[in-house]
Amino acid sequence: MQLVQALDQGDLVEVSFQSHSGQVQGLAEMLTPVRRFREGAVQPFRFVALGEDDHRRLRMMADAASDRSSPDERQPAMQT
Hints:
With 80 residues, this protein is of the alpha+beta class. The chain has one helix at 52-69, and strands at 2-3, 12-19, 22-30, 35-37, 40-42, 45-50. It has one domain (2-68). 22% of the residues lie in helices and 39% in strands. The N and C termini lie far apart (42 Å).
């Protein structure tokens, strides 16, 4: 996530965002910042507590993103 100021690695935070399937909300642990700027930082996190419905919405979002980035398996392979 992009932050105004990096948090300490291991800090626990409440994360909430809107997906196409609905709001995803859970407790997350901050990981080491990957990039720092004068105006802030990009810092990854991992969920450590997520409700069942939130987990389902997150899985649907990840599956949709994976489907968009993978070639369509129903298309015949190109022959060289």
